[in-house]
Fold this protein.
Amino acid sequence: MSKKIHVTDTILRDAHQSLLATRMRTEDMLPICDKLDKVGYWSLEVWGGATFDACVRFLKEDPWERLRQLRAALPNTRLQMLLRGQNLLGYRHYSDDVVKAFVAKAAVNGIDVFRIFDAMNDVRNLRVAIEAVKAAGKHAQGTIAYTTSPVHTIDAFVAQAKQMEAMGCDSVAIKDMAGLLTPYATGELVKALKSEQSLPVFIHSHDTAGLAAMCQLKAVENGADHIDTAISSFAWGTSHPGTESMVAALKGSEFDTGLDLELLQEIGLYFYAVRKKYHQFESEFTAVDTRVQVNQVPGGMISNLANQLKEQGALNRMNEVLAEIPRVREDLGFPPLVTPTSQIVGTQAFFNVLAGERYKTITNEVKLYLQGGYGKAPGSVSEKLRRQAIGSEEVIDVRPADLLKPEMTKLRGEIGALAKSEEDVLTYAMFPDIGRKFLEEREAGTLTPEVLLPIPEAGSVSSAGGEGVPTEFVIDVHGETYRVDITGVGVKAEGKRHFYLSIDGMPEEVVFEPLNEFVGGGSSKRKQATAPGHVSTTMPGNIVDVLVKEGDVVKAGQAVLITEAMKMETEVQAAIAGKVTAIHVAKGDRVNPGEILIEIEG
Ligand code: MN
């Protein structure tokens, strides 16, 4: 008896997210859609949080317009998206009316299959999204965010799948975002899922540790119905098994996919050329990295942490942070490490190591987590830590969104006439800052996509001093081509550096003031804290809010500032009671460790 294995190609979403910082532009997708549409894929994954974010933030494309164009160009193939349950594409829980509005609009604009997950695997956070997908007449896929821990047993995953089946899901996906699956564990899990529930099983596994193709084979042999792949020129490493390789592996067997290898070769060659255009976004961490099998820390998290530590001049403490991550994760009841829990756990571990004392600083996100604000933790959280973090404040045990009032009317009011459609309101809802900026720039006609550097080829770029550093560029802005030569670099002074350029032969001077200039505190005019009444931070970051004003009387331990670092917010408290005599920061300021931000006289 033969069984056709269905294939979802991730080339238009996860593949370039995993390899090229999600930068592929619509203009590089559309020319190949005709061929993609002829392959006979079960679906193409095209949309998700990071693609939406990158469109608005960097590419200055309307993500809804991209979706409509792909829908028109791929009339015969299901389009699929990844949705973070009640978080939709953002980082917070949205009210139910926003979830319903978003799903309805995604469906109308072209999404057929919604893969819905929750970072905690708390199925209560999936319910409203699943209902909205079914109300739109589309395919709802319930997702297991795969991880390993003492509480993540096969029985627990099977129980979750049964709950999602009862909620009306059409299929179930095993989402191994980190590359933690091993072949025999995959086989056991798939076998149990197939025997205990009736939904088709999809397998989504990253090849981070070099195991994904073996995992997929074991999944298929044990009854899995669908595999996620990436066309070969965007496959392997932190991406997925190559489409052509998996098609070839199963060809002629009882699991033949039926896909045309020759057509796939043409598509692979097309994307081979496309990938070169984005060379500046190639991460150095895209090859196989087996560390995840030892420390359970996903590759993406390691590269983020490495960047943060580098900014601190503390790259040598990487191993301490890697060792701290599993301890924080245990304190928080073993959440899977996926957006947003990967950032929550990673940042707290980073603070624990760099502050020299565990939980000396506790991020607001960890407090919210311990209060139940993200849902139920998979295991038990540390009660001691919870008391320390939230004191006598109440812990919620309801679904977090049950506490939210409807928001759509408020959001429409906030964005006002900048929104020309309900889709625009949702763009703003997903990403309030960059979404608003995008809509403002669109209104003003000033949307400017980031510049793609020319493909380095012999003869097209000259090198300075034989060091292989390009000094001549041809850039394209709004269809106009400019030739830029770097003619000189000044000395760095006060955190600023002068570059001398010529643009089309005209000399220009540009002053760069790096955003991440922390080292030595040389970029700031603020004095260093010396007294207990000098409020300062232990981490570099941005000021999100100043909670006091001059003349205010504060208590010791009272929060006076909210700062943000690595997307996580932290409260800064007054060390002594007294009167606020001076404030040296405002919302939006960049601050360095040890600077006097507020002065309090006791
Ligand atoms: Mn993925």
Observations:
- Confidence is low (pLDDT under 50) at residues 459-469, 514-523.
- The chain has five domains: 6-281, 297-402, 407-444, 464-512, 527-601.
